[in-house]
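An example makes the point: we print one protein in full, the chain in one-letter code, the fold tokenised, without further comment:
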Amino acid sequence: MVHAVLRFIHDHGSCSDLEHVNEVINAHGGSARLRDEVLRHAERCPVTAESFGHELALARYSPAQPATHAFLATAQLDAVWIHDGILDARDYKTGSRRTLRVADDPRAWVQAWVLGSIAQQKGLRLQLRYEHLAAEIDEDPEFWELDEEELNATEDRLRYEIIKIRETDSWAGVNEPTACQFCRYRSICPDSAAPGEATWLEIQPATSSAQ
């Protein structure tokens, strides 16, 4: 819920406006944990920055090259800001900390590659941050600021991973109900513990009528 609440707070005001924040939190149940997470974000929010968007779903296409097939990468970003010559992408985290550096997380590689072309078009440096909002997490992972050389290295790293994926002959699903029920590929996965029905349209053959 905190992701949607933070988006609403920023779309309709500022997280530095305590009256506005309290009004939104109370409208969403007003739990102590939600209030604490929002206030922890406010301590790190670039309040005067220009908002590029919240809860963004972005994609970037790469045409085929001699060593790799064409591929499409998608990334989810909770908030993206523009300030001080930086395209500042934030990923809000409410669970445990899994990495000490954003640069070591493969999910961040995809985010960086998808956002890299946008940063270059705008003449901005790209920076990725993980904001841990839970009170039990004392320190965020080290943020990742990429120059052109590191962006190119990240693209090479992704291409290497794609080659490995395409060379894999078989895949085994996790077969775990909690994970499978939210998977968008469960309708075509033979190992799914929560198989779903395909949702695409079926074209029925035309029936001939006697003249």
Q: What stands out?
A: Residues 56 and 127 are 16 Å apart (CA to CA). The mean pLDDT is 87. Residues 49-167 form one domain.
